[in-house]
Give the backbone structure.
Amino acid sequence: MRLALKTLRNRIPHLVTVVLMLLGMMSAATAPSQAAPQKLAGSATVCSNSPIPAGWVVTSSYSSAGCPGTGVAYTIADASGQTGLTVCSFSPIPAGWVVTSSYSSAGCAGTGVAYSIANVATSNYATVCSFSPIPAGWVVTSSYSSAGCAGTGVAYSIGNVATSNYATVRLCQLARQGAVLG
């Protein structure tokens, strides 16, 4: 009898472990699954050291005690479905968008410069500042002085070659793309 009690005493911790594991598996199997994280939509406020999601832009920046380390918060917005937005100059510019003007803005703490940007997905031509990204398939057709492009004072007319029958490409486009002229 002593041997049986000693054997039982040695096995109780193992039995308890097995019972707890079974209970854990049963509760995990019956627990409601957690929802996947929600995708941001519309606009949000983030600290300036947070990554900006792809396709989103910074529409304003301001001092914020709620952002330790940087002290600056950004208001960000989803650019999808939009045709034009005002963004801070340090904002990422989504693919297929161009900078149409730049100007001073108190709403962009740090640089004090804002851009007007436009989605050119359905356009054949556009006027952009010389520092604007030029979308794939677009070319510079002319350049000129523009007070609407603070900083450089130069604007470009650009055309979508995919939707045009012809385009006159200026040497400024070749120089911008780093072409070697002979």
